[in-house]
């Protein structure tokens, strides 16, 4: 017996598989002030027994980053690198912004501390770490009531001992700290090169981990004896204890569950190549699955790099609750602001005042929010009497009143014309998202099947398929809760990585030794940590891959790797991957292996639907 729970911006979704293998689905309005409340109310409504296991996709980490309400976090780094977070990269996300604004670092300058130590690029100790230099830093941490500390030293992925020394000192009683803060070490979280991304990822984890730990503790207490596991951004699940310590791995857990569920349904229907289209209450998530889950280690959350394995998902602010409004120039916009769960669309019967609309960025002249859901209801695409299977009745009159005010601003001839305009603008936003993950990456969408899900996905699927010339639309039996269903189909998974910097073809023996040494470090660790979570080593499957590039390039492509691969076949696989992604290959160029990756996957008894 297993229960999948996905917390969304508007609804919390539940899929329970009982002891007889039957599926029970339920939707509960989310409780943003305390997400655990909606989860526990749904568990009580479904009467889930104490022995049932719970798999949960959480938005706690994501919301903490978006709303900047994480823990009081400090950073300890190598002398001369305290401002790495503020400097960042020269990338310009908005080319036409005259005065581009970078997000403020999660750690303010006053809480970024530097220690006098140095490791060389070869992993040798150049300047040893002096324990006495930590005393004033620890005193400041205590005085400022720091809850969490990110420790990220230069080249610690080659020599982690200095980071471990600082962590041990923080946990010891020698410095008289009243309370040990939560610790995040870059050598544990991300032992890879690229100082900015490694620092950013470690700081993100430190910033959200205390909140996630407290949330999971409250949730576990409410669940009683029910075992709790958490969905990761990479499409696998981990224990609640690991999720609390490495909360950054859960930043995109909900959308990842949807892609896993879509792949599971598509495999049952024998459609291996799909484009997933998840339209919920706040946003739309799309992913292209060419016969496999699309994973990447180059994610971004709230404008900050997150270098952890995640499912490659593109998100746009277009959902059922997205607000429609007319700007000062008379143009109609839909999203990215959302009415969320409170108050929700006008048809939910919870009208909000002008000040709330102004806060969300919509036109303050409207007295009720106009959302995509309101437009679908007015156009007859939703049955007001049977929303949520009849558990909730929609107020069509309220939706028409809200759209009538919008129609006057637009100069539309009728409420229906205004509603159709809202739908067209929302569709255009979502069509651009599908083009970005298909056409712009060298994939022809006409070869794929569109698999829509989420509360609003199937409502818009046919129009999007027609616009993109996608020949098939596959709608699952339970599209509104597919993310929760996907969590039940997600296997226990853990990812490990190590930067090696090996050139293929030159110094073959030395390169092979460094590659073997990295694997010898990662594989036992993977098996040991999976065993600690209850999975026998002989049952765990290890998948290997390599981040590779042409020498001189600044970014890599991930290529699958087996232990019997010869260097020539590894290079050929990389050339093929480069040709697919960028349209050309350079067979004469030197190829580098930058990072070795190992993914440990435990077996899972899949549900049958």
Description:
- The protein has 609 residues and is of the alpha/beta class.
- Among the domains are: 66-211, no CATH class; 322-426, no CATH class; 493-601, 2-Layer Sandwich (Dna Ligase, domain 1), CATH 3.30.1490.
- Helices cover 34% and strands 23% of the residues.
- The chain contains 17 helices and 27 strands.
- The strands form 8 sheets. Strands 3-2-1-4-11-12 form a 6-stranded mixed β-sheet, with helices on both faces. A 5-stranded mixed β-sheet has the order 19-14-13-22-23, with helices on both faces.
- α11 packs across α12.
- It is globular.
Features:
34% helix; 23% strand; 17 helices; globular; alpha/beta; five-stranded mixed β-sheet; six-stranded mixed β-sheet; Dna Ligase, domain 1; 609 residues
How are the elements arranged and paired?
Blueprint: E1 2-7, E2 11-17, E3 23-29, H1 35-46, E4 53-57, H2 60-67, E5 73-78, H3 84-87, E6 112-115, E7 118-119, E8 125-127, H4 135-143, E9 148-152, H5 161-171, E10 182-185, H6 186-189, H7 195-223, E11 228-231, E12 237-239, H8 240-245, H9 253-268, E13 273-279, E14 284-290, E15 295-296, E16 299-301, E17 304-306, E18 310-311, E19 314-316, E20 322-326, E21 332-338, H10 354-359, H11 372-378, H12 396-410, H13 415-437, E22 449-453, H14 457-468, E23 472-473, H15 482-488, E24 493-504, H16 508-532, E25 541-550, E26 557-561, H17 567-582, E27 591-601
Parallel strand pairs: 1-4, 4-11, 5-6, 5-9, 9-10, 13-22, 22-23
Antiparallel strand pairs: 1-2, 2-3, 7-8, 11-12, 13-14, 14-19, 15-18, 16-17, 20-21, 24-27, 25-26, 25-27
Helix pairs in contact: 1-7, 2-7, 9-15, 11-12, 11-13, 12-13, 13-14
